[in-house]
Amino acid sequence: AGSKLREVFDKINNLLSGKTVQTEGQPVSVTQHPQGLEFVCYKLAEKFVKHGEGEVSFHHDSAFPIAVVLSGIWELHPRVGDIFLAHLHKKCPYSVPFYPARKEGTSMEEYQRMLGYEVHDSKVEEQDHFLKRMSGMIRLYAAIIQLRWPYGNKQGAHPHGLSYGWRWLAQMLNLEPLADVTAMLLLDFLEVCGNAMMKQYGIQFWKTMFFIQKSYIPRIEAVTSSGQMGCLSRLKNFMQKCLQAKEIPLPKGILTPSFWRT
Q1: Cα–Cα distance, 77 to 84 (Å, whole number)
Q2: In Å, how far are 43, 56, 143, 164 from 160, measured between CA atoms?
Q3: Which CATH superfamily is domain 1-261 in?
Q4: Is 57 exposed, middle or buried (0-12, 13-18, 19+ CB in 10 A)?
Q5: pLDDT for 216-252, tens place per residue?
Q6: Extended beta strands in 131-261, E state
Q7: What is a GO molecular function of this protein (predicted)?
Q8: Considering the entire predicted model, what is its pTM?
Q9: How far is residue 115's CA from residue 111's CA, in Å, rounded to a whole number?
Q10: pLDDT per residue over 123-180, tens digit each?
Q11: Whole-angstrom Cα distance, residue 9 to residue 13?
């Protein structure tokens, strides 16, 4: 509910503003320790990224309430946004976007970690699980860039708005595609903020969509084996529907004005 989200936002904002808040029956304030504020910013940013790779990866709709709170906090406390991006880029290099190359002397285990895989006791996580986590984090990022906290001061610009999404998409299309990963990330990104980008960039956006369909999807196909076609097929279907309808649908779970009255 909108009222519940406001409570969450106010509590985080009060904590970061140096006020005392109650948590688990204890009064807590960042002024209790010289590094209190820095610690809270760090842990909070880390927590938001964990929501992306956990909550959002399983429940796509949850990207929007989480993102709108972070967007508002970022506006008032830029340090949280900076640290959030640092955590996000480390956990999901594709959010830069960046495909790390394996350098000489780097072990396979270390390289897999650089690519975003979780490695425990030399065991690498399953590909499906890895893709799900990356998908959740990109969906959260795509939600953040288009949302503003509705009760904030709208005078300034969004601290990390749609222009960053445009940059991400352009840089993504300048990279050589990877099997599985590239198709999934493009689909996630366009499903979540394609509608907002269509409204913001109009004809330039549609030129990019045509480029993806005509030039970039064939390049993804060239590196995709027959067993990895799932994400690519979904991306092709999505592109075809959007280009035929000349419309990108609103994302499922977007927060409507009526949500804030709940």
Answers
A1: 11
A2: 20, 20, 11, 6
A3: GLE1-like (1.25.40.510)
A4: buried
A5: 999 999 998 877 778 899 999 999 999 999 999 999 9
A6: none
A7: phospholipid binding
A8: 0.93
A9: 6
A10: 888 988 999 999 999 999 999 999 999 987 777 888 999 999 999 999 999 999 988 8
A11: 6
